[in-house]
Design goal:
Blueprint: H1 3-15, H2 18-25, H3 29-43, E1 48-51, E2 54-57, H4 59-86, E3 91-97, H5 101-116, E4 120-126, H6 129-138, E5 143-148, E6 157-172, E7 200-204, H7 209-222, E8 227-232, H8 235-243, E9 248-252, E10 262-266, E11 272-280, H9 287-303, H10 309-314
Parallel strand pairs: 3-4, 3-5, 7-8, 7-9
Antiparallel strand pairs: 1-2, 5-11, 6-9, 6-10, 6-11
Helix pairs in contact: 1-2, 1-4, 2-3, 5-9
């Protein structure tokens, strides 16, 4: 088995589709299929079941994929070690970016990183955190910015905390609850959530960690299921809907921009929303990735870190 066929099988395992795997490898589907058939003949066992537009790993295929990912991981570690020794770092970093936070930090730190390591190209994957975690565990990406209420629950992931902040409830101007409350550029203390049980909400996506880790349990504790009129991964969009008087919203404090048309409140219990960078525990950090993390740490502390409400009021 040569190294090229290892890359072929890895691509098939990732995509579970011959056409998509062939596109990644810049060969034809027919050529890739022939390589797979050749390997199966050599091994004397079927690695993938052919379904309509889909390839499903057999038990032997899963064993093969696990071994291949291990070999690729060893090769990546070897390359990384050699690059550190030579001082000539080049290649590709595959970075996962959750919506808003990750993309913003990356856009700010990339120019400085690129000046120091011009030989490294970056491939970005913008997805929800649960999807990024799976890609980290399978070795499809090198590292990812991650958001959630409970990072310690992410198995198999080495997590580096970068910042922590509050989630804020935003009420549009004209909301009855705001009667006699003057506008201000700091959040009000947390209200009782059942007061808003009949309101419409614009919230983060259903399967996002903001929802599963924090908001859904919070509403459950308050004794009601919110009437969600819009779900989105973009906090600026959620804020704009509230600013237009269409609904209430909840977004991270770092993403709040409009204090004129929206009045903001802390949430009951002061839940914390954590932002950090994660990579598989088997992944070896090279010099370039360590520098990337250092840049991200500085940026997140500057733009995304907010103290809990009691400490913020004292400062």
């Amino acid at each position: 088995m040569n190294f090229r066929i290892i890359e072929y099988i890895d691509a098939i395992g990732k995509h579970r589709n011959m056409a998509d795997a062939a596109d990644e490898l810049f060969i034809t589907s027919s050529a890739l299929n022939q390589q797979l058939l050749k390997l199966e003949r050599e091994l004397g066992i079927q690695l993938f079941l052919r379904a309509k537009h889909k390839l499903i790993p057999t038990e032997a295929g899963e064993i093969c994929l696990k071994g291949i990912r291990g070999m690729l991981g060893i090769w990546e570690e070897t390359q990384s070690a050699l690059e550190d020794i030579s001082g000539c770092v080049k290649g590709l970093l595959r970075i996962g970016l959750p919506y808003d936070h990750g993309s913003e930090v990356f856009a700010r730190v990339w120019p400085e990183f690129h000046k120091k390591y011009p030989g490294i190209n970056i491939q970005c994957y913008q997805l929800l955190v649960p999807e990024l975690l799976e890609m980290l565990r399978s070795g499809e990406i090198d590292a990812a910015f991650l958001l959630g209420g409970n990072p310690s629950a992410w198995k198999g992931i080495q997590y580096i905390p970068l910042s922590s902040e509050n989630l804020l409830l935003g009420l549009p101007s004209g909301h009855p609850y705001l009667k006699d409350k003057p506008k201000r550029i700091t959040p009000y203390p947390a209200p009782e959530l059942p007061v808003f049980s009949q309101d419409k909400f614009a919230l983060s996506l259903k399967h996002s960690t903001m929802r599963t880790d924090i908001l859904d349990p919070l509403f459950q504790l308050a004794g009601f299921t919110p009437n969600v009129m819009v779900e989105s991964g973009f906090n600026s969009f959620l804020e704009k809907l509230a600013a237009q008087g269409l609904c209430d919203t909840i977004i991270p404090q770092s993403q709040v921009k409009d204090y004129e048309n929206v009045t903001w409140f802390y949430l009951p219990g002061s839940p914390r929303f954590h932002f950090g960078l994660g990579y598989a525990k088997s992944y070896r950090l090279n010099r370039a990735m360590k520098h990337f993390i250092t840049l991200a740490e500085g940026d997140a502390k500057q733009y995304l870190d907010f103290p809990p409400p009691d400490k913020e009021r004292k400062s």
